[in-house]
Amino acid sequence: MRNLSVDIAGVILKNPVMTASGTFGVSDEFAEFEDLEKLGGITTKGVAPIAWEGNPGPRVIESPSGMLNAIGLQNPGVEVFATRDLPALKGVDTVVMANVCGHSIDDYVKVVERLAEEDVVKLLEINISCPNDSGVTAFGTDPKEAAKVCAAVKKAARQPVIIKLTPNVTDITEIAKACEAAGADGLSLINTPMGMVIDVHRRKFALANKTGGMSGPAIRPLAVRMVYQTVHAVKIPVIGMGGIMTGEDALQFIMAGASAVSVGMANFNDPAAAARIVDEIKAYMDKYDVEDINELRGIVD
Question: What is the pTM of this model?
Fold first, then answer.
């Protein structure tokens, strides 16, 4: 029997395929499309200490080989999230990682302290890198600020802390190393690069926010390169993401050194994408007689 299980900061995933924050509903919304227990993990939508309205519309626009979004981390706040949304995931045999956002260090700490009470949450993904919210982005582009958030969250957290990194920096490894030094248990990358679309017929920005985060196949080579660089800069596990549409896409990240992957935009045009990618990884392992998925991690080193 082939082994697909992976270890993320002491938490065992049955396979390396997770879903990316903001692309998989808030609880069990995708359960009618695929077996959630087939997945290695589910990452929830970002949650703040209080409800955020997000940005005005239009907030989503398609682009060649991808899309741009400027949702702005709309969410109901941690109390509603914990009492209304999380219960649907209790009893589901998969790892739940809660994505946490904030406009201040105190915001992050409040959410983490509240989620410490929730046994269903096994990992925390700390979003310091949303390109559509300047208050969040500021933490992720400065190594010192990123380290401050990480240190404060680690002090308050019960679950392992995974810091989500932005590609909108000169050198992502500097942020990665700062987070590792501040106690991060792992990293996830990349969040979306910032992009812009102009409607030439209306002669206006396509998004009300002017800019948005770009996702989809177009960013995958950028993401694979950044994951490879980061894996070689730190010793903590990395969850890779960015344009994963197939099992072979996911394997690129694993071969670059990622311990697990997150599927994002693919969920929008194929609600069963993540489960399909698990099957495609299994088929690859059968084809090439790979006994353990961990044999492939960092193989192109």
Answer: 0.95
